[in-house]
Amino acid sequence: MSPTSRRRPRLAVGCALAAIAATLASPVWADPAPTYGQLLQQLGQTPATLEAGANFDAAEARVRQARVRPNPVLGLDVENAYGSGPYNGLNNADTSLALSTPLELWGRRAARVAAARAEAGAVGLQRDLAVVDAAGRLALVYAEAEVAQRRATLAEETLSLTVADARAALALVEEGREPLLRGIQGEAEAASARATLDEAVAERDAAYARLTAVAMIPAPVTSVDASLLDAAPTAVEPVIEDAPTVRVAEAQRAAAERRIDVQRVQARPDINASVGIRRFEAENATALTFGISMPLPLFDRNRGNIEAAQAEFRAADARLMTARQEAQADRAAAVARLSASVSRVRAADGGVTAAEEAYRLSRIGFEAGRISQLELRVTRTALVGARSAAVDARLARVRAEIDLARLDGRAPFEGTQ
């Protein structure tokens, strides 16, 4: 092959590498997201917390309504009117005006109010748990956006290293110390790194969009400056008495027990009393009327509703036992995962340091001709893998902190922001 024909492929490889490297110098305008702590203060405006707050307001309104006594009934009866004979018209009519009201005996009102209060207590605890869940989701979305940003940065650095290694290989090809195949391989690696960067950038932009939507940030987020991945997890507290899920299950069990009382009271007769006045047109006289009425419990004794309420209580009691068992196991597992993730982060950081030193030495050896391009590629791949593992370890630590925070009933990284 003539020198001219060999120079053209080398020039093509060099031009391709220059085109790939030129994309790294494009400016990026960033609109940083608020810090996680700032977004946490605005958590009350998110749809999940607003929904939970509205449900609690509705439960409180039902408590107020349960305290209200039933309205009295005003009745007007006209007898012996518009008939035949002496009852023609209203001259001999008997007119009664009466006021009747339920007496609400047997503790009917008290049972109703107690059941409504128990329901409101359970809904209030569910509202608190919903706020904790919303804080955990916010922390996860924020961390995932930061992870996507770091992976895009890592992909950009990988592309830069790959282009630099390919240029070094091309220089050795130009000197005749390496075959032309090495330059072509370098170009292929650079093109693959470019495709990886494009994919990482797309994932980063998608993560920014999710963070903007979940956190309800007015302007689209284009960067995450305040790191949550590097934040230290909250110190593990001693074992708490009851997890939020257990407290919710206890409140639901208490509400189910109150509903049994309500149904038992409903089985008793609902007595109504009335008082009124009657006008006798024929005698031109008036008299008071008194009355009392009650249904006879011959057929409907509310047994079905009582049995249904008792069954619901047994189900709530079973859910409480399950919640207690799961809370103990889940918290022990969350503490173990958090401890393991902290150790994993330290190990990953040490691996990154070792991989960076190995790559630096390999690059020196490659440029001096003491090691091959294959060995340089292996150390570069190890460096990329170590950096990626460090990012994954930090995300795992955030997930472990979110799980433990939910079991403790607090926001993730509470007190660290």
Automatic annotation (TrEMBL):
What domain of life is recorded for the organism?
Bacteria
Q: Which UniProt keywords apply?
A: Signal
Q: Does the keyword Thylakoid apply?
A: no
What organism is the protein native to?
Brevundimonas staleyi
Taxonomic placement = Bacteria, Pseudomonadati, Pseudomonadota, Alphaproteobacteria, Caulobacterales
Q: Which SUPFAM superfamilies match?
A: Outer membrane efflux proteins (OEP) (SSF56954)
Read off the InterPro entries from this record: MdtP/NodT-like, OMP_efflux
Query: Signal sequence span per UniProt?
Result: 1-30
Please identify the protein, giving its name as recorded: TolC family protein
Q: Which family does it belong to?
A: Belongs to the outer membrane factor (OMF) (TC 1.B.17) family.
